[in-house]
Specification:
This protein is of the alpha+beta class and 203 residues long. The protein is built from four helices and seven strands, in the order ααβββαββββα.
């Protein structure tokens, strides 16, 4: 006849063996049940419901850039600014402009909208870089710039130049916001110089 002590030892050993051999899912369920039971008796006196976890908001999806070839041929210009959220001729807007040497690369720039080509916006890129001192070298490379002064499109109110030989074709959906409206006299000066240069160089 087995002693009570020997029986208890045998029962305990069998229970330990069953726990070791139990499936992992069963063991995880047992641990989860234990956590749930303890949370119902927290020192804060709250119910057993676990506090909601905060999650990091998803990052906004980057808008795909649409790279269109530069405009060729005559440009039909018009002055019709309208601060309605769309890009209209006579407005300076901001958009991503591809580099000529590598259209997969580029930068955000202010652009003067000069017209439309169907559903595509036509614009001239602006820069705050001064090309007056190297105008001859720029001309030899086929780049022609015109001073347009300063305006609210530049937060530092730096003098700007507009490039006349390159007319950008832009998808309206890639234009982020309006920057300013140029006055009619400046717009006429720019578009007159644009038309004359393109006629002279057969652009």
């Amino acid at each position: 006849m087995r002693s009570p002590t020997f029986s208890r030892l045998l029962t305990g050993a069998a229970g330990a063996l069953r726990r070791v051999l139990a499936p992992s899912d069963e063991r995880r369920g047992s641990r989860a049940a234990g956590r749930s039971g303890r949370s119902g008796h927290s020192g804060h006196g709250r119910s057993g419901t676990a506090p909601a976890r905060t999650t990091t908001p998803a990052q906004p999806t980057r808008v795909a850039r649409t790279v269109l070839p530069d405009h060729r041929g005559p440009v039909r210009t018009e002055y019709s600014p309208d601060l309605d959220g769309a890009a209209d001729p006579g407005e300076i807007v901001w958009t991503w402009v591809p580099y000529e040497e590598d259209a997969s690369q580029g930068k955000d720039r202010p652009v003067l909208v000069v017209g439309w080509d169907g559903d595509v916006v036509l614009g001239l890129m602006l820069t705050s870089k001064d090309h007056d001192r190297n105008a001859a070298r720029e001309a030899r490379k086929g780049r022609f710039w015109m001073d347009i002064g300063s305006g609210p499109w530049d937060s530092r109110r730096r003098d700007s130049e507009v490039r006349l030989d390159r007319v950008l074709r832009l998808d309206p959906d890639t234009i982020r916001r309006e920057g300013a409206v140029v006055d009619p006299a400046l717009f006429e000066s720019v578009t007159t110089a644009l038309t004359r240069l393109r006629a002279e160089r057969g652009l």
